[in-house]
Amino acid sequence: MNTLTHADSAGLEKLDRRTCYALLATVPIGRIVFTEAALPAIQPVNFVLDGDDVIIRTGTGSKLAQAARSAVVAFEGDQYDEDTMSGWSVVLVGRAEPVGDDAERRRLSTLGLMPWAPGTRPHYIRIRPEIVRGRRIVRPPAL
Predict the structure, then answer these.
(1) Model's pTM, two decimal places?
(2) Is 142 inside any structural domain?
(3) Is residue 58 in some structural domain?
(4) Could you tell me the residue range of the domain that residue 114 belongs to?
(5) Are 6 and 127 contacting, i.e. CB atoms less than 8 angstroms apart?
(6) The domain spanning residue 73 has which CATH number?
(7) Is residue 77 one of the residues assigned to a domain?
(8) How confident is the model over 4-44, as pLDDT tens digits?
(9) CA 91 → CA 51, 76, 84, 88, 121, distances in Å?
(10) What is the DSSP pairing of strand 53-58 with strand 13-15?
(11) Which residues pair with residue 8 across a beta bridge?
């Protein structure tokens, strides 16, 4: 019997928007899903939240920078604990836009987003989510 009041058909807890953002704020890496040559592509990225928006940095001429110009993308962050077999996943869907305004780029540079990958990453991309969904699985303790 399912004891979760807000569970999906698989028994996973459905997370509200506030919980989704609180969980995303706890992880440094997510994955962006975009279209490359008419096919889905997934790339791990480090990110920072700016309100409800996801901010990532990318290099000049990168596939991601080209693909994210006014494109609808998905962004996913998650965490899994193998020992307890518990975890969560949050998926955001929205439009990705390059940040072109110099004053806004300077402001974003104060948010502490430092690229992990080697090379220069001078371009900021803002994802403005329109859809926010999250699920969590928590295994009950063994009896």
Answers:
(1) 0.86
(2) no
(3) yes
(4) 13-137
(5) no
(6) 2.30.110.10
(7) yes
(8) 457 676 778 999 999 999 999 999 999 999 988 889 999 99
(9) 16, 4, 22, 10, 24
(10) unpaired
(11) none
